[in-house]
Structures are given as structure tokens and as C-alpha cells.
User: What shape does this take?
Amino acid sequence: MVVVGLGLLGEALAVQAARTWRELRDDDQRPLRVTIVDEQGEMKAASMRERHSELDAVWELRALDMPPESAAAGAYEIIGDSSELEAPAVAYVCGGDDRSTLAAGLSLQNSLGNRRIPVVLVLTRSDGLARLISESGTQTEFENLRAFGLFDRALTADPWYV
Assistant: This one.
């Protein structure tokens, strides 16, 4: 798993993935590999390790200090020359705004070459950029991009309580 942009949402994704991995894994299964790509990746990863020490045996957390929009330049460091079994199963791009998230996601996807690693773009809404990506079809250069509209899908309000 790769998390590009380690704000509150990126951290929540990584922590929840590790907790789910802990619940579902066998005792002898290797740890979940989580690669953090952020301008202050090392510092933020160290802070995460300290605050979530209960996950030390569950995840293998590594960090790359680079701006999220430069994730493509670190693609080799993210996936290296590892086999398909060791390559990340998914990359989440959690930028500060939709434009920078899309730019970082496109750049990362292009740099992955023929590896079919889904790149999930966490965008504010399901319309606009997210719709463009979703409707682009499966036979385009966007086929590995997935859009997640945060406000529409995660921050819904129950009409009875509004």
C-alpha cells in the first residue's frame, strides 16, 4: 500500500488498513507494507509509529521525503524492481486539493508503466474531475485511476438530523 500525502486522511487510511490487516491475517503472515510519500514523510511516519505502537508488529512502515506531486520521481523507490507479489496492491493519493491530487495521481500512474496498480484519487466530490475519471472507460490511459469523492461518499448527512 502506498499513501501519497500524509495528512489526517492519509494517516487514517494507513492506520485503518493496518488494523484490518491485524484482524484478518494469520500469525505467520508478513506485515502490511505501507509506503508514505510526503514532504515530511520521515517525520510524519515516526509520529505515526509513536502514536500507534500497537501496530508495530502489523505493518512495515517506510517513508519517502518528497512532495506528493513528485511521487512519480520516486516510483522506483515506491515499487522498486520487486516482484508482483511484493509490489503494492494499491496507491492512495490524498492531496490538499483536487487539482494537485489529480496531477500527482496522473504522474504516479504514468510512472508505474505497465504495472496495473490501482491509483485511488481522494477528491472532494464525485462530480467534476471524479466523474471524468470514472466515465473514461476501462480501455484508456486512465484505466488504473479510481476516484473517491470524499464529501459525497464519506460525509453524508442523514436528512432527519439536519
